[in-house]
Amino acid sequence: MRQLTAEYVYNQWEFADEGTYLAFEDPAAYEAARIPDRLTAERLAAYCRAMGIDPFSVPYYGPRAVLLRRPVDVLGRVPRRSLR
């Protein structure tokens, strides 16, 4: 099984790369100095398309799917929530 993660946790980025590389991967990308550059949305979409998944195409999900969008800070910070 292959697993890649790039996440922003406790005010710092963390990257994990486990398992055998898949044929379509670009392992050199995982050496980028900035962790967010190692697993970009574009790279993730390309990897998904290589496996027959089109994650950013609304028609891919069919007529019964619901698309939810949430604004995301470009630095990867989670927007603050309040109960007030």
Structural class: alpha+beta
Order of helices and strands: EEH
Instruction: Please estimate the helix content.
Output: 10-25%
- The count of DSSP E runs of length 2 or more, i.e. the number of strands, is 2
* Unreliable residue runs: none
How much beta, percentage-wise?
15-25%
Major sheet details: 2 strands, antiparallel
**CA distance, first residue to last residue:** 43 Å
Read across the widest sheet, the strand sequence of neighbours is 1-2
* Total count of helical runs of at least 4 residues: 1
Gyration radius, in Å: 15 Å
Average pLDDT number: 85
Shape: flat
What tags apply to this protein structure?
84 residues, alpha+beta, flat, two-stranded antiparallel ribbon
Outline the secondary-structure elements.
Blueprint: E1 3-9, E2 12-18, H1 41-50
Antiparallel strand pairs: 1-2
Summarize the structure.
This protein is α+β, with helices and mostly antiparallel strands and 84 residues long. 12% of the residues lie in helices and 17% in strands.
What features would you describe in this structure?
The longest helix is centred in the middle third of the chain and has 10 residues, at 41-50. The protein is α+β, with helices and mostly antiparallel strands and 84 residues long. It has a two-stranded antiparallel sheet. It is built from one helix and two strands.
